[in-house]
Amino acid sequence: MTIGRQLKKMRQLLNLSQSQMCAGIISESFYSKIEHDKNELSINKLLALLNAHNISFYDFFEEFDEENLSKIKLEKQIYTAFNNRNINQLRTIKKNLNNKDTIELLKINLMLATLNHQVYEIPEKFKKEIINGCQKVDLQNEKNFWNLAISTYVYNFNELSAFIDYILDNVTELDLTNDDMLVSLLNLIINYMDRCFRENSLNRIQILGAFVKQIPDSFAISFHKLIVKYYVALADNDIALANQIENLLNKSGYQSYIKTLSVVE
């Protein structure tokens, strides 16, 4: 059972069209992809849909078996640890994985490589699957951004830049009110900025900095926007501002996060 299939089942039980099921909360085209398991739905939007049709949260998840729910929980833990750049937590999760969690193991290894600025050597078959899976970036699917964010050292720089250019050229397709999507997108941008800094492609950092500045402020991404500002300061060679942001992060208890960032030698 998946979120999409369960939504479809509930919709059919209520004798609703896809348009009626959307209730003005999401677009019909986006919802259709959810039912076909081609799009991810944020928990806030899911709750809004359930509430709009008086569907009990507990009734909705009643048919999810324990393994499926544990997978959802595990994925949430992994992405949260990556978002916080908590390398120790990722290593702990990796240590506790069982043999069935091969995809999760691959993701964690990619995350650890990204945070340590290393190239993770994976079998060519898996590498092709990752690259092919992101060839057409769905700008309404946050999972695409996560997959790109954790794979910034799998792609060569030109491949990665092509994905970023595609996103910037299609900004109008982004739902800038979706905090979950924005968190995944900002993680991708931060990792790409780090790669740009190491590739000495400073102008691309400045372009992305200008883009992020236009994104409406939200508590969910306020920290990420500060990190973006840090990389823009590095690109501008504004060492005073970069040090000021670094000191603020240190005082706020983000020492482990700082260790994953590029610094001016």
How many β-strands, per DSSP? 0
Radius of gyration: 20 Å
Strand residues, percent: under 5%
Structural class: mainly alpha
Termini Cα gap: 51 Å
Number of domains: 2
GO molecular function: DNA binding
Pfam families: HTH_3
Organism: Lactobacillus crispatus
Protein name: Transcriptional regulator
Plain-language structure description:
This is Transcriptional regulator. Residues 7-60 form the HTH cro/C1-type domain. Pfam families: HTH_3. It comes from Lactobacillus crispatus. The chain folds into two domains: 3-61, Orthogonal Bundle (434 Repressor (Amino-terminal Domain)), CATH 1.10.260; 66-258. 66% of the residues lie in helices and 0% in strands. It contains 16 helices and no strands. α6 (66-83) runs antiparallel to α7 (87-95) and α13 (202-214) runs antiparallel to α14. The chain is globular, with a radius of gyration of 20 Å.
